[in-house]
Known about the structure:
By secondary structure, the protein is α+β, with helices and mostly antiparallel strands. Strands 10, 11, 14, 15, 16, 17, 18, 19 and 20 form a 9-stranded mixed β-sheet that branches. Strands 8-26-25-24-9-21-23-22 form an 8-stranded mixed β-sheet, with helices on both faces. Strands 1, 2, 3, 4, 5, 6 and 7 form a 7-stranded antiparallel β-sheet that branches.
Amino acid sequence: MNFYQQPPEDVLSSLNTTDKGLTSEEVKKKQEEHxxxxxxxxxxxxxxSLFIDSFKDPMVIVLLIxxxxxxxxxxxxxxxxILTVLIINSILSVVQTRKAEDSLASLRDMAAPSATVVxxxxxxxxxxxxxxAGDIVILEAGNNVPADGRLLExxxxxxxxxxxxxxxxxxxxxxxxxxxxxxxxxxxxxxxxGTLVTxxxxxxxxxxxxxxxxxxxxxxxxxxxxxxQTPLQRKLESFSKKLGFVILGLSVLIFAIQAFRIFTGxxxxxxxxELLNAFMxxxxxxxxxxxxxLQSIVTIVLSVGTNKMAKKHAIIRKLPAVETLGSTxxxxxxxxxxxxQNKMTVVQAYxxxxxxxxxxxxxxxxxxxxxxxxxxxxLANDSSLNEEGEASGDPTEVALINYSNKIGLPFSDLxxxxxxxxxxxxxxxxxxxxxxxxxxxxxxxxxxxxxxVLFKRCSKILINGEVVEITEEYSxxxxxxxxxxxxxxxxxxxxxxxxxxxxxxxxEDENDLIFVGLLAMIDPPRExxxxxxxxxxxxxxxxxxxxGDHKTTARAIALxxxxxxxDDIALTGQELDALSEEELMxxxxxxxxxxxxxxxxxxxxxxxxxxxxxxxxxxGDGVNDAPALKQADIGIxxxxxxxxxxxxxxxxxxxxxxxxxxxxxxxxxxxYSNIKKAIAYLxxxxxxxxxxxxxxxxxxxxxxxxxxxxxxxxxxxxxIPAIALGMEKExxxxxxxxxxxxxxGIFTGQTLQSVILRGFTIGIAxxxxxxxxxxxxxxxxxxxxxxxxTLILSRTLQVFPARSNTQTSFQAGFFSNKYVVGAFAxxxxxxxxTMLPVVRPIxxxxxxxxxxxxxxxxxxxxxxxxxxxxxxxxxxxxxxD
Length: 881
């Protein structure tokens, strides 16, 4: 049986303690047996280990082999370039990984530094770390709860538990018995580590410390949840392995063919030189095929996406999250503050003579009953607002004074006009608050409280300014109206008063009251959220509400936002626990609302959607959200949330608004589309180079490129246009398509087609150029210069058709992406440098290579671009890949 279901004496007995506390000897013994009241943290992987792990990528291994061979052969420039790129990529990887490991540090920071306990039959302050199970702890307003425990005494106790339960208002606590099994948020006789006492005082016995607390369980969940690779990371890793093996195999095959020709020919003049040339030919293929700057370019394009998202109130903590958000199929969202305004607001006013959604905007039009209702709401109220509009006090009381201000009756004016003479403070056991004021020359007791309690204290009722006896019919109407409001998920307060001649109050004065009316409040939905949910649905994204609030409240908000459909289901955390995995998977797509959930429930929900191959986003702001935020493919923390939730997330919403998530999805989809464009651009050019090299091998021509030429193109010339493609605007209909299949490869559909078409088009142009150099100009050296020029110009020019698979550059707006135009200009300038007399020898370009040869090579390169653009006009595509 749980501690909250046991009587206090049984709890004390099971913990070997008494209500007078432990002795120092007993505390020391327990600390030796069970340790200290602190959260443990697993050892983190060293920076050096993370650095080494970053070199395990197959493409990286191939490049390392190439670099080592280059060093052995004395080609130091090429090897230095390759090693520099690899080291930069590794450093970026280590920095990103380390940033993701700070959740538990923030969680430990939430622990209270000290606590007041009863030991050796006296009250003393001790470090929270030294608290043990069985300690008697004293709590007062403003204290952080240092450990989990069962209440022994509680006076008007209210505890802010939002970090654990997700509730937006403080929880009332009582030292009562609870026999049935309840959710954590409904355990009124328990307090939990890491929460805050906002009102009242209490004594409790510690039942759990360290990892045994609810906060400790969250910490363990965070440690046990493994971080997810994004779809792009998974596909790049898979592709890298395949490409690495293909490149090695192709290089070995090419060297074998060359060696076979050498040994079966007429006999080489210098075997060693011939084999070395063959080996360099094979190395050139590896260099040509591997996009050395790919990782850096993807990182830069993702960074561009983070800047765009920041402008839409979404701060990205982990770069790959940009792309993941674009492929999201399910958004599991919190209710409070994300779908709603996180601001209790008066929405209904009921008086016995009439009901209205809002008070009259003109105070002069108000009835006596409306004036009296507002007086009670403002005066029997402990909340306040400062000059900057910042509120302090209970959220429901703040809603009452905000409403008075809104309708033109500043709460401060009322309080100055009718000062408080005496009061009976709110008490959670009687659920009432009363204050005494002199209004219009008469002393009045003003009382507000829970309707179910206040109804029983009223013997009269105010109707049209007259006080009459409450009849059974009136009483029935009041209870029905309260139930109607409750079913709409409103938080309802009742208001009453009575004339009172004395100035000293006692609890008996809160009887024989005159009922005035009801005010209904709710945390209303954000106006723009409903449209955002509709846009998400049009983009194939399912929205699911997961909240710590009551099911009735959650379902009402979901209905209001059109998130809850006719055949949908709302479940509590306990109802979810009762479902088997098979039952959950069967009902999953019909469950739109989960209420009163635990951290374990949230992880299970996220995992269930992931098991259906859905990329799942999870929003949250509390400590209890952190494990699920880490489990999700993309965790989204609220800017107003805890540091723990932020550390466990990949993205932070600065405005806590669901609309910003949908806006960020559009950016994410565009970023992924641009990454694919950049990758396709890089591989198209590399494929063209490989095609030209293989053709030269089959024709027994000289190698068309040197390794340095290929490195220059891959690392310098291609990188700038690839980055510029990352700035491309959204393709048409990008938010009218379903999320992509997470199992879809990088090179599928139109992307694969465009890579093959562009690659072979460029390759054929280079082959023709080299053939002309050999057979028309009769010079192998000229043929290499022509092949290099054709390749570099073709790859530079193809940045224009690479901008879209569906539109030509002119249809998309030739100057709409100024970065592409600028990249083209920079690349042409860089190419021009290779033509300078002092630089030509480095790139194996002979002085005999003149304007005629250059014009032929440039013409062939331009022809490839025209062909690729014409293809879009002749064979148009309907949607982007």
